[in-house]
Amino acid sequence: MTPREHEELVRDLVGALAAPRDVRTVGIERDVQLEGRLAHHQIDVVWTFEVDGVERRVFFECRRHRTPLEQRDAFAWVGVLADLAEAGVHGTGVMVTVTGHQSGARAVAEGHGAYVMELRRPAEDWRGRVRRIVLEVTQRVPDITSVDFDHAPSSGAPGVSEEPLRIAVDRLFVRTRDGERSVREVMLSGVLAPAGCPASGMRAVRHEYDPPADLVHEGRVVGRITALHGVAGETERVLRQVIGPVDEMLMWMTGAPSAGRRALVRPDGTAGRTGP
To answer: Are residues 251 and 122 in the same domain?
Structure first.
């Protein structure tokens, strides 16, 4: 990985980690030139975002040396941040290393309000942790595949007919001496299995009415029936999602594997979180 590729990777990881946050990202730029009070500075990656209408920035220094980050490197970085702050250019500083760091470097950075992070592939960090999650959700879906009516002889009343109804079933109601229920409710009554039991599947349904029942649409009787029948029941749909294995992910974390917060970035660019 070249220095440019390192910077581009950090930029992309910052974007993936920023996406689910409750902030509005203004921009994530690479190779930004900023003017301090005493000198001109090149910043590898700058993340600008808003929180409650206030604009903030994070400055990233991408270090890819042969040796771990040293104390003097951290002093140089906090000096850059201080020079920018004196010119009114404020932001939180983060050093991103791929070769580790000395404890002194972290102490210097954190003592000046900056951070040291390590970008690497996960190794022993996964011991005792969940590496693969399989989510299976079973949906039980009530369904009606056919509905028909046995019409009572026409009474001659306006709107009452033995002709096939051309009204959507979910807008029809059955009215008897016991009250009024939707056709859908009647068709599904008694065919849905209790919670915890297997789905009932689809089956023939028939309801007889003696005396005949009224078919009601928008409060108006549109027919009289002696039976309501068709096919109704419930079907199952299983939704399955696999998260992991996490050993295929890149890890963005603080240099101390046993402490601090960890953020995972998957190969497809999506982000998640783990750790305390």
So the answer is: yes
Same domain, 7 and 107: yes
Are residues 69 and 115 located together in one domain of the fold? yes
Residues 89 and 119 placed together within one structural domain of the fold: yes
> Are 13 and 81 part of one and the same domain?
yes
Q: Which domain holds residue 187?
A: 135-239
pLDDT tens for each residue of 153-191: 765 555 454 455 677 788 899 999 999 999 999 999 988
Q: Are residues 17 and 115 in the same domain?
A: yes
Cβ atoms within 10 Å of 259's Cβ, excluding its own: 11
How is residue 195 written in tokens?
């919670």
Residues 168 and 184 in one domain: yes
Rounded to an integer, what distance in angstroms lies between the CA atom of residue 229 and that of residue 204?
Answer: 7
- The pTM of the full predicted model, rounded to 2 decimals, is 0.48
